């Protein structure tokens, strides 16, 4: 019922209600109408989450608990026991299950009215458009925004470019491995991201293969790639990126550690880092939707 929905998500609605123009006499009635409008806007939204791992799982949880009415999850991985240190859905009872299947059950427990679509596939350089076709065929609700938690630069670049072609707001997440300080995460335009090899590689791919304008080389903002002084900074791409300003640790010399699971990387990762990244990304999407200020990517 609408009453039950409002009880679930009124806290989010009130959080984003703008009371600046409300007079004292109108405050009670207008604030109620305002927060209901925010809840309605979130419920009418469709957010696609690509990559339901260490970052994407926590981001999906935040979107569900914020009242997003339609969520599409894209991944083709199963839960490994070595995911336990960093992924929300990794439990002793879920090992071996598909990650997006586990997340769908959790979303429905949080909000039974959420429309959850599952696409069992990995995004790659060659199938981004096919996956968009599947999204459009699987849901009658147009995509409002996309949260990109892909961990490979080629697939990540292809997906970001596909969002730009369709004019879909996208928030992309950088790397979390080898970092220990969750307070170092920030959200800024992708062209301004620093200390993140994954996002740096994406920028290069987007410029080289997808026609994106030159971005900023970290540490050389006042000069171009030829060392000449810039007359002005290159324009932003209007793609929000979540990244840590903490320098990642270097990979260990011996990467053949037999104690490491096949689902684990050479660098260690912790849930308070992956979770922070996912929450920051989800928070940005909720902010844009609630304030009706979606950011359309520009190449």
From TrEMBL:
* Superkingdom of this protein's organism: Eukaryota
Q: Which GO terms describe its biological process?
A: cyclic threonylcarbamoyladenosine biosynthetic process
The THIF-type NAD/FAD binding fold domain is annotated at 39-196
Q: Residues annotated as region Disordered?
A: 242-261
Q: Which GO terms describe its molecular function?
A: tRNA threonylcarbamoyladenosine dehydratase; ubiquitin-like modifier activating enzyme activity
Coiled coil: which residue ranges?
A: none
Listed PANTHER family: TRNA THREONYLCARBAMOYLADENOSINE DEHYDRATASE (PTHR43267)
- What's this protein's name? HesA/MoeB/ThiF family protein
The record lists the organism as Fragilariopsis cylindrus CCMP1102
